[in-house]
Design brief:
- This protein has 244 residues and is an alpha/beta fold.
- The protein has a single domain, classed as Rossmann fold, CATH 3.40.50.
- Helix content is 30%, strand content 18%.
- The strands form 2 sheets. The chain has a 7-stranded parallel beta sheet, covered by helices on one side. Strands 4-8-7 form a 3-stranded antiparallel beta sheet, covered by helices on one side.
- It is globular, with a radius of gyration of 17 Å.
- 41% of the residues are buried.
- It binds 2-phosphoglycolic acid.
- 2-phosphoglycolic acid binds next to loops.
Length: 244
């Protein structure tokens, strides 16, 4: 794993944006795996600013998001469909037809999961997957204990994840109980992974990712097995005494 250390969240976001933008600019066709949550907001902000300034072209980009809640309408502000439109897709020239998120409203969620993996494969796989990391080591909605062999699947959200995401909703009862997430195997199939982390609350997770054991109780540890992972972290998220 290549670790790039930066001073703070803003610098992490700038470096991540430069990383993604250079990939987009230097390819004729690229499949990006995208994430939601607080961490990539700065990345998306700088991608949008770059688009406005430098007109980086996204018409050849196909995107696949990691996850989506079950049972939230796509137009509901807390859905990840809405988040992605609001924070990125509405502000760059990516084609609507090239944008993909799991469908948490399908009649058969199992079918939706299988279709998602099939679609990723048919499009040639993901070139660069952007990831955040949960304090408990989750990637996507793959919580501790998830088998490293999982494909896209439905998950029952843990109470701690529902609590962590509660701030976006009026109250805990409104936080969905289930989500669809790309599985750990689906994530590992990406040719490259770019993981971002910022803040002291992520320091234990980053410590375990870099220096802990491979363990399904800490899902992100699977990345130790991936041949092409870049991690951009700020100094606060390295504050657990990691030596790199
Ligand atoms: P965050 O979430 O970016 O909101 O901290 C990261 C994650 O849970 O994967």
């Amino acid at each position: 794993m290549e670790v790039i250390t930066v001073t703070d969240y803003n610098e992490m976001s700038i470096q991540a944006a430069e990383y993604i933008i250079s990939k987009v600019r230097s390819s004729n066709s690229i499949n990006l795996g995208l994430a939601t949550g607080g961490t990539p907001l700065g990345l998306y902000k700088y991608m949008v600013l770059d688009f406005q300034k430098n007109t980086t072209d996204y018409r050849h980009v196909i995107s696949f998001n990691l996850d989506e809640y079950v049972g939230l309408s796509e137009v509901y502000p807390n859905s990840y469909h809405y988040y992605m439109k609001e924070n990125l897709f509405n502000h760059i020239n990516i084609l609507d037809s090239n944008v993909h998120l799991p469908n948490g409203n399908g009649a058969s969620l199992q079918k939706e999961c299988a279709l998602y993996d099939k679609l990723i494969k048919e499009c040639g796989g993901i070139d660069v997957q952007v990831l955040g990391i949960g304090q408990n080591g989750h990637i996507g909605f793959n919580e501790p204990g998830t088998s490293f062999g999982t494909k896209t699947h439905v998950v029952k959200l843990t109470e701690s994840t529902r609590q962590a995401n509660k701030h976006n909703f009026d109250n805990l009862d409104e936080v969905p109980t289930h989500a669809i997430t790309m599985g750990i195997q689906s994530i590992m199939n990406s040719r490259e992974i770019l993981l971002l982390a910022s803040g002291t609350e992520k320091s234990t997770a980053i410590y375990k990712l870099l220096q802990g054991d491979l363990n399904e109780q800490f899902p992100a540890s699977v990345l130790q097995l991936h041949p092409n992972v870049t991690i951009i972290v700020d100094e606060q998220s390295l504050s657990s005494g990691i030596s790199i």
